[in-house]
Amino acid sequence: MGALLNIGCWAQGILDKFKSLDFLAPLALRLYLVPVFWTAGMNKIEGFDGIVYWFDSGLGLPFPTLMAGLATGTEIVGAILLLIGLGVRWISLPLIITMLVAVFTVHLPNGWQAVADPMSAFANENVTGAIDRLDRARDILRENGNYEWLTETGNFVISNNGIEWAVTYLIMLIALFFIGAGKYVSFDFYIRRFANQHCSI
């Protein structure tokens, strides 16, 4: 028992040495999400009228122009704030709401998978049909196109448009809400340090 305890203490000591690098985890989450939300927001700007129409006719959301504007602004401003680490916990909240709306209004009817994969434990009837269509599309391309060139940088897939990616981003945002922007590589860290030195909160 004593030997096991010593091993446990030794292992914990090794892990504790990495605490000085714990800022890397929130930094990685932030930098991963920046292009996700920046691209989503910019795409909405470029096709704003279509987004408004989709929010209205496709999703049946109230005040579609306002909702589209809020979603677009949240994603673009959110990407910038995540990048510089400013107000990360605050901006995480509207981004979480955006992801929840996306999950429940857009992706949930399609199940879990983002990309159709019949080997997944979460495959549904949509995935089975998608794979049949993908096989037929491959046959057509082999017969009528340069299939080797078309697939030399990757295989064709069919998007299932399920909740997988949206939930992944949601989980990352929830983590950022609780842990914040992290030390050193964020404005929040220095603002908090200044506040701790000068405020009696």
Describe what this molecule looks like in 3D.
- The protein has two domains: about 25-110 and about 160-200; about 110-160, no CATH class.
- The longest helix has 23 residues, at about 25-45.
- The protein is mainly alpha-helical and about 200 residues long.
- The protein has helices spanning about 1-15, 25-45, 50-60, 65-85, 90-105, 125-145, 145-150, 165-180, 185-200.
- The protein starts with a helix and ends with a helix.
In short:
This protein has 201 residues and is mainly alpha-helical. The chain is built from nine helices and no strands. The protein is 71% helix and 0% strand.
Set out the fold topology.
Blueprint: H1 2-16, H2 24-46, H3 48-58, H4 64-84, H5 88-107, H6 125-144, H7 147-150, H8 164-179, H9 187-198
